[in-house]
Specification:
This protein has 267 residues and is of the alpha/beta class. It is 33% helix and 23% strand.
Length: 267
């Protein structure tokens, strides 16, 4: 089946040379990609993971990214978060173009402005819950805010568990620690790669609700990669990838809409 024509992503991307906050009176988008390509390997055997992806996400939005296996979902997330470098194209988080920063500055920028929730949690086994959550701020050389730590642990249902090690936690609790860690530095954007993929459906639904409500209360922008239509249906919009291209968007999605669209893409 032919890949459908790309659907414009809100709002339409400006010219690549314009600054994302250049329009008078308009806040900078939380995340902006312009004509992003990502290829792995050398020609002629290079594999194109992303092919000219452009998108703009407003502050406070909650977005799911979906697509068939190999469509470029995780690559998009890693490039947008500054964990990987695009072959070409430009990426802004807030008012900062990631590619324009020196490597050391990129690392500092990610610690301060980007939160990432990994599918396998990536917790440090010998650190307790509190130290795992504080870790990005400590690595940045800043003083952790004790009151904020207590508030955040309470918000994610981990109050009283500050001294536990990851090995003493259930999968759902470990994922809550990962979410708290991603939110602790008050980042501009939080990226989550299959945040419920390793959890049972009940725990996954609870974790997703927690991520959405906590991020909404903090004014965070959240981007979730998922294969689960139920997860996507909890988001404000779904961006659909196929063959490394952004091909469609569903606003106010239902699980049934997402399932039907995914079946079309897989056909």
């Amino acid at each position: 089946m032919a890949t459908p024509a790309p659907h414009p992503v809100s709002p339409t991307a400006e010219h690549p040379d314009s600054h994302p906050g250049s329009h008078p009176g308009s806040p900078a988008p939380a995340l902006r990609l312009v004509d992003v390509h990502k290829r792995y390997g050398a020609a002629p055997a290079a594999v194109a993971a992303l092919r000219g992806v452009s998108l703009t996400l407003r502050p406070g939005s909650f977005t799911a990214v979906m697509g068939p296996s190999g469509s470029g979902k995780s690559t998009l997330l890693h490039v947008a978060a500054g964990l990987d470098v695009p072959t070409s194209g430009r990426v802004w988080v807030g008012e900062h173009e990631i590619g324009a920063l020196a490597p050391d500055a990129q690392t500092r920028f990610r610690r301060e402005h980007v939160g990432f929730v990994f599918q396998d949690y990536n917790l440090i086994g010998h650190l307790d819950v509190a130290d795992n959550v504080r870790l990005p701020v400590v690595l940045a050389g800043d003083e952790p805010d004790a009151a904020w730590l207590a508030e955040l642990l309470d918000a994610v249902g981990l109050a009283g568990m500050e001294g536990r090690r990851p090995g003493e936690l259930s999968g759902g609790q470990a994922q809550r620690v990962a979410i708290a860690r991603a939110l602790f530095s008050r980042p501009t954007v939080v990226f989550a790669d299959e945040p419920t993929g390793a959890l049972d459906s009940r725990t996954g639904a609870a974790v997703l609700t927690l991520l959405r409500e906590t991020a909404r209360r903090l004014g965070q922008t959240v981007v979730v990669v998922t294969h689960d239509p139920r997860v996507a249906a909890a988001c404000e919009q779904v961006l659909l990838l196929a063959d490394g291209r952004l091909v469609d968007r569903i606003d106010d999605p239902s699980a049934e809409q997402v399932t039907a669209r995914m079946l079309t893409l897989a056909g």
